[in-house]
Structure formats: structure tokens, C-alpha cells
Fold this sequence. Notes:
The protein is of the alpha+beta class. It has helices at about 45-55, 75-95, and strands at about 10-15, 25-35, 60-70, 100-110. A four-stranded mixed β-sheet has the order 1-2-3-4. It starts with 7 loop residues before the first strand and ends in a 10-residue tail after the last strand.
Amino acid sequence: MTTLPSGFVAHIANIGIKDGSDDFLVIAAQDTVPGAGVFTQSRFAGPSIGLSRRAVADGTLRAFVVVSKNANVANGKPGMEDADEIVRSVASLLGCTPHDVLIASTGVIGRRYPMERV
């Protein structure tokens, strides 16, 4: 078990992307905190990159979401809509704006998130 700094909470789950191991993580702060990111320079970056660049543009964050085993890349508009829905859902649950939530994805390319399980 990892201990988080005071004022932070985490939610870890298996949403069945590939196997029975954890593949979904949210770490959230009780208040907005300083935030930054380093992103790929690839012109073939997935929707998470654009959404996350927007999230850290003002230098603050409230939460970040990590989806593993699925990069959600090369899925066109539906992939963007899926990533945006995750960001909006987390923001809604936390009572913040989607611009306060960073999303990161890594894994298989060409598959959409299993939205029915997220």
C-alpha cells in the first residue's frame, strides 16, 4: 500500500481492459494544486495528450487519471469522445472543471476504452 500526501486520495480499480490486474487509477487533491506535464512530441499522439496539455496549461490540476493496457490511439473522433467523457466524469465526481483533470493512457493502440466498464 502506498501512503499519499495529506490532502490527496486515490481510487484504483480493475475495469477489465486486459486481465485481472489493476488498470484504472485516479489520484485527486482536495483542492487545486500546482501541476505540470511532459508530453510526447509525436504527431500521432492520442486524445489524452491534447486533453492533458489543456489541463496543465494554467499550471494547476485537481486530479489525474491513468488508464493502462489501452492507449486509446488511432480511434478517431470516438476515441476523443471516450477520453473526454472520462475526464468530464471524474471532474463531475470531484466537483471541479474538466480543465483540472489530466488523463494518461498507455498500452494497446487501436482499441477504444471499454466505456461500459469505466
